[in-house]
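Colleagues,

Please find the record for the two-part complex below.
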Amino acid sequence: MPRTDSVPALAAPGASVAVSVEGLVKRYDEVEAVRGIDFEVAAGEIFGFLGPNGAGKSTTINMLCTLVRPSAGAATVAGYDVVSERDDVRRNIGLVFQDTTLDGYLTAEQNLRLHAELYGVPRELVGERMRQVMEMVGLWERRGSLVNTFSGGMKRRLEIARGLLHSPRVLFLDEPTVGLDPQTRSSIWRYIRELKAREDITIFLTTHYMDEAEYCDRIAIMDQGRIIVLDTPQALKAKVGKDRVQIETDDDEAAIAALRERFGIEATVAEGAVTFGVPEGEQFVPRLFAELPVPIRSVSVARPSLDDVFMSYTGTTIRDAESTSTDRMRNVARMMGR
Amino acid sequence: MATRETPVQSAASPQRAPAPNGSSAAPAGTPHEIASVRVPTRSAGSELRAIKVVWKRELIRFSRDRLRILTSLMQPFLFLFVLGTGLSRLASAGTHGVNLRTFVYPGVLCMAVMFTAMFSAASLVWDREFGFLREMMVAPVRRSSLVLGKCFGGATVAGFQGVIVLCLAGLVGVPYNAGLIAEIFALQLLLAFAITAFGVMVAARITQMQSFMALMQMAIMPMYFLSGALFPVSGLPQWLEILNRLDPLTYAVDPMRRAVFAHLRISDAARHALDPGVTWWSWHVSSVVEAAVVALLGLAMLTIAIVEFGRAE
């Protein structure tokens, strides 16, 4: 039974809908990978699916991009039904999968040209559009290089460029930053946010990094085939609880006393710093500086982690969830003969 | 081969040419008008474009892989010049003065074509393993276009390999006669297509490279040895004759050999011994029927491949 009733699963009224999902189910023999989910994504939104591996995120994405047939329920993407209007859906979506789907023996440009031909991009627009998307991800200069010579981050960027080549209305990104180093991850995110500013596009992505979910307009947390909660990152974190603030002061005792008096906050000393929890740590810090009589040497604010969020809704940590769901996926894979 | 084509500007195109204000020359990061692309709905033209691009990809990849071109020529060379030369000392009595290398030439040509076609089809298994197949499968085109492009690509590449062997004809006593070359060329192209279709059909089901290669070896080697590529097809023990007639490759090798022998000046005895032609219950099967057998089998396998890929999620 989906627990989405108390949550804004529907896009704001009046906004045009890019993705609409109703009672979507995917069953592999005995295993239910997706167990009836409902949500809407508004046009122009960055929408994130967050959850451990094997939660059903990829299966959902695969159903939305017509690669997998739903067992029950319905979904439309860009206004087209994913089962009965498969081709129309495909023409209007861009895809970046978890694993690379580039041809390493072709050059970057050849990969993009091939894509343009498969998608029937008007010939007179191919050159211009190709240059645009490649410049956007900073690979125009490398267009003549074989893709096999690219690093993981470059390949991912090229795939994003390719996914955009035919101006899709919805771009699906399945774990766009998995397996990349932090620097590359943040550069990928820069492109994704730039994209939203430059192109009229809806972005639908999955991730299991909480810090990445931050960039989304709304996120849905998925576990064991169900959407557990769906909201803006701010609202989710506010629901989960408090940010952790740590300050280093010259006089910890005085600081703790002042916190109790002025803010009604119970602080303790942990890891050599005064530590306490507040709902919105970043907003709290300016007040702290203005009103705390004790000089502050340093301050750090930590957001609730994925584990905190996840645990508050499922009662288990994400790592435990991943180990059991990996077993489950293995069973699915075995049954499908892969 | 030209691997980077410039976009063709069709003068008759009703669509507008790229914006003349040089927006495409704007440096990265500068806001400029986005060239918005609208993907047209599916049409015969878009399917043809898809077939063509899948075909072209095969050619680009083949031309990149010089090593593969060389290694796949290795086997025909060994058979033709080493085995052919060595065995001819043993077999001279039975060949009525005909060079053994001339006799095995059609068979060796078929082998070169078969192996190249098989490797082309195998690339589909790699495509699946490396994910590229997914890029093609989600494109808004028919699966049949993808399969057709792949089969045409494999056939072209294998046909090219056949042409290289065809160039060697003179070295083994096969005359460079325009009609003969044309006939052999057409036959080997047909074979290349049929074998690629066979490989693609298998690749639709077999998803692991090791299994695919093992299966293809298991199919191709017996097919090759039973086909009469290396021996005349008359006067065989009955079990071998039955197997030979059931082997599809028989119907590719035999018309090629007939074509070659039709252009040789040899005794009737030699012709009778070396080029008896395939018979079905003592009925002489004509070259046209033989080619039709290969073509029909190829089409049947192509159809199965299309159905299989259409069904795959």
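The radius of gyration of chain B is 23 Å.

Comments are welcome before we finalize the supplementary table.
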